[in-house]
């Protein structure tokens, strides 16, 4: 439970402050999101359309950087049909990346089950029990690395907010 609370708090904070939905209409060209396009054959291939904004802070107090981190692991797939809203690094919690994904949590979980297994990750036993139609959490491990994904489904837009965190285990 002690590990779950910081993740839930991070999810709430990142979604609340990281989405940038309160921008005035005239500021659209300053939008700091990165559209991610993936090739179904090679899901770790990412097209970055916002290189000029990479590494800049979004003007929030969290230190969230726009776009996918430069050192995003090649063996963790980027979700299909997604937009990356940014990332934040915390020395004790690792790196957290936020995405908005078109589709339902079950579809995202099925995608990650296939792709993470191909990359050598093992799903943490019982972690899928924390998932339902509205979202939840699932965990993966590989060597000394842990990956946690928290999802929240928005039925009105058929989108899922995905917070993906990865770090080295101690």
For the largest beta-sheet, the strand count, sense and barrel status come to:
8 strands, antiparallel
Classification by helices and strands: alpha+beta
Oligomer: single chain
Low-confidence stretches: 4-9, 11-59
Nearest-angstrom radius of gyration? 15 Å
Total strand segments: 8
Instruction: Return the domain count.
Output: 1
Helix content: 10-25%
Q: How would you describe the shape?
A: globular
Mean pLDDT: 75
Describe the structure.
The structure is a single chain. This protein is an alpha+beta fold. It has one domain (4-18, 64-168): TATA-Binding Protein (2-Layer Sandwich), CATH 3.30.310. Helices cover 17% and strands 31% of the residues. The protein contains 2 helices and 8 strands, in the order αβββαβββββ. It has helices at 4-18, 105-118, and strands at residues 34-36, 82-90, 94-102, 122-123, 131-132, 135-142, 145-154, 159-168. Strands 1, 2, 3, 4, 5, 6, 7 and 8 form an 8-stranded antiparallel sheet that branches. The longest helix has 15 residues, at 4-18.
Give me some keywords for this one.
170 residues; alpha+beta; 2 helices; 8 strands; 31% strand
Question: What does the secondary structure layout of this molecule look like, with pairings?
Answer:
Elements: H1 4-18, E1 34-36, E2 82-90, E3 94-102, H2 105-118, E4 122-123, E5 131-132, E6 135-142, E7 145-154, E8 159-168
Antiparallel strand pairs: 1-2, 2-3, 3-8, 4-6, 5-6, 6-7, 7-8
In short:
The chain is of the alpha+beta class.
